[in-house]
Amino acid sequence: MRTNARILKLLVASAAMTLIFQGASAQTGSPQGTQGAKRKNTGVGVDNPSSRNMSEVDKTIKAAADALNMARWSGVGGGRLPEVDVVNRMEIWGAGTSSVFGQANASGATRPSFKTEYHVALGYNPPAMRVEITRSNPEGSAQTAGASRAAAQHTIETVRDTYAWNESELGAGLEPGRGVATPAMSEVDQRLLQLWILPWGVVKAAFAAGDKTNISTENGARVLTFPLSGPLAGVTLKATLDAKNFITKVEAHSDNPKLAGMIAEADYSDYADHGEILTDLESPGRIVEKQGGTTVLDIQVKMADLNNPYLVFPVPDTVKKASAELIQKR
Known about the structure:
Layout: H1 2-15, E1 34-35, H2 56-68, E2 71-74, E3 81-85, E4 89-98, E5 114-124, E6 127-136, E7 153-160, E8 163-167, E9 181-183, H3 188-196, H4 199-208, E10 214-218, E11 221-227, E12 235-241, E13 247-254, E14 265-269, E15 286-291, E16 294-305, H5 317-329
Antiparallel strand pairs: 1-10, 2-3, 4-5, 4-16, 5-6, 6-7, 7-8, 8-9, 10-11, 11-12, 12-13, 13-14, 14-15, 15-16
Helix pairs in contact: 2-4
């Protein structure tokens, strides 16, 4: 029954795919390269005459989307409609290690990496992300003198649009007596950046940046460079593609001191279909995030549902109130 329900969900999700790179506009020292021409939503593909006039930037973005199998043709009505972006909501489960950058233990040494269970749910329209992490002491780690081993730490960090909050449990703060939602408005930019440096976010954001997206070659690899917009205006992403057009490295740069503490680099490898039901949608099998050259997250993906699972990210009233109060103080 579970398998039948999943198949039915896939069919329903497929029928709802109707927008071109939807949600990309919501996020709203680079190397010298070729500047991308302005793009129209006319669709790009081997059977589309407009593909013959694609710029190198367009071709590279399309190649990256095709590697992930994000874009599909629609044959509704027997005719060719523009390609549609089929990946807009997803969940990823994995395990590995993580650390809290910048913190130190009692001896003054950098805090060790913790064993980590990782679950992320995200969407791009609207831009939203919920990261659920359980950390525990690594096997064989030494105890701090005079202190016992720490208990497992469970956190749920959520962002949607310009709101950020922490949940004591899933759905906290949405109804009386159901957990606590703690506003974390200072974390909005950092959490949104985590959403857009994922491979799918890179494709959407590079497409949305239009003629501001540049292409260059570094060490024989193609590199896309483009600015983000909206709350992340002032941040520039640099994405490196491998020979199979998979995005393998993303670096975030900013001249804005306010954004200096953000995760600055992400590495992706071992791409495959990690779905419980294989649908040829590709995702990285390993995700590594770094800050200041130090690894803060290293996750091996166990399973990924990229078929637009039903996900919602309602903002608790307490978070909306905190945001309004913060705006009034500015």
